[in-house]
Specification:
By secondary structure, this protein is an alpha+beta fold. The protein has one domain: Gcn5-related N-acetyltransferase (GNAT) (Aminopeptidase). 25% of the residues lie in helices and 33% in strands. It has an 8-stranded mixed sheet, with helices on both faces. A hairpin with a 7-residue loop joins strand 6 and strand 7. InterPro entries: Acyl_CoA_acyltransferase.
Length: 197
């Protein structure tokens, strides 16, 4: 049985930066090089990393509002939830070899659980319009029906367009726990185990 574990780090490591650069540059070409992928927001964020049998498998960044990426880099006057009870979940990815086992859903569900347990009420996020990446509603994210452009200086266009998302952590808690239990049972059949935090 392969063990999925996760740790919340308060500093970003070179390994996290390298893996994020590789994943986001596969399709979206966010960054010019690895150094350009070191973002201002990293130092004020927590970094939730998932490991499978000790090997780096996935990641998400948790950034307190209001000094977060979405608030400061949006190119239009879109209103965002932006108070001390709100976190932004962003830069979420799974390395290629683990994308077929629903690890993204586990990362989002566990990440939202952690946000709730440390006292936050809402999480905001975004999904790529160009790449059609979807964050599952099964863990509590809801589309706000708004699109926003964000500055991406090293992309081909200088910007990327995203759908905006929100998750009310209390309202969606029961749904999320049911989904995490479902994922836990599903992954056991594939030879993976994880604990729900």
């Amino acid at each position: 049985m392969k063990k999925i574990e996760y740790r919340l780090h308060h500093l970003i490591s070179d390994e996290m930066v390298e893996k994020r650069f590789n994943c986001f540059n596969e399709v979206l070409h966010y960054y010019k090089d690895i150094e350009s992928s070191r973002e201002t927001y990293d130092k004020d964020s927590s970094h939730l990393v998932f490991y499978i049998d000790g090997k780096f498998a996935g990641y998400t960044r948790l950034t307190e509002c209001p000094y977060n990426y979405m608030a400061l880099e949006k190119m239009s006057d879109i209103k965002l939830s932006n108070d001390k009870y709100t976190l932004e979940m962003g830069r979420t990815f799974v390395i290629p070899e683990y994308r077929e086992i629903k690890l993204l859903n586990v990362i989002l569900g566990i990440g939202l659980n952690i946000c709730r347990q440390i006292g936050y009420k809402k999480v905001i996020g975004n999904v790529s319009y160009e790449n059609h990446i979807k964050m599952p509603a099964t863990v509590g994210f809801e589309f706000t029906n708004e699109l926003a452009d964000f500055k991406m200086p090293f992309s081909d266009k200088g910007k990327h367009t995203f759908y905006l998302l929100e998750c009310d952590l209390e309202k969606t808690n029961a749904i999320r726990q049911n989904e995490l239990q479902r994922l836990q049972a599903l992954l056991l059949t594939k030879g993976y185990e994880f604990a729900i935090y």
